Amino acid sequence: MPVKNEDQILAFFKLHKQDFHEKYGVYKIGIFGSYARNEQTEGSDIDIAIEMEPEKKNLHNFLAFKRHLENELGRKVDLGIESALKSEARKLVEKEIVYV
User: Fold this and answer.
1) How many degrees, rounded to 5, is the angle at CA 18 between CA 66 and CA 53?
2) Global pTM value
3) Is 45 considered catalytic here?
4) How far apart are CA 52 and CA 25, in angstroms?
5) Can you give the residue ranges of the Polymerase nucleotidyl transferase domain (predicted)?
């Protein structure tokens, strides 16, 4: 069943944060975009920014984590590594991101 709001997403993140770190090396996670602003629609994707431990930061783990989130949350996920965002995009994300 697809998540419906920010609270459900954040609750899922809190519940699984340790697992995300152990399996994928994700040590920082937050949502931004329409879900963070409570403006999501039925077709909205979930914008998620993460940071990963250097030893686990690779394409395989990144894509596996994205697939895991999409399967568990029931929505398309737009996943990005926050530190890799261009400065203009990072400024926009920083204004509205909600971290766990």
Assistant:
1) 65
2) 0.93
3) yes
4) 5
5) 16-99
Helix (H) or strand (E) holding 47: strand 46-52
Sort strands 46-52 and 26-32 into parallel, antiparallel or unpaired. Answer: antiparallel
Residue with tokens 């152990």: 22
For residue 82, CA distances in Å to 1, 13, 27, 49 come to 28, 17, 12, 5
Banded pLDDT at 37 (limits 50, 70, 90):
very high
- Lookup: tokens for 45: 């994707």
Its CATH class, for the domain covering 6-99, is: alpha beta
- Compute the C-alpha angle 13/83/69, nearest 5°: 30
Q: Which one is catalytic: 7, 19, 45, 78?
A: 45
d(CA 95, CA 22) in angstroms, rounded, equals 29
Q: pLDDT above 90 covers what percent of the chain? A: 83
| Higher per-residue confidence, 88 vs 55 | 55
Find out whether 30 and 99 touch, Cβ atoms under 8 Å.
yes
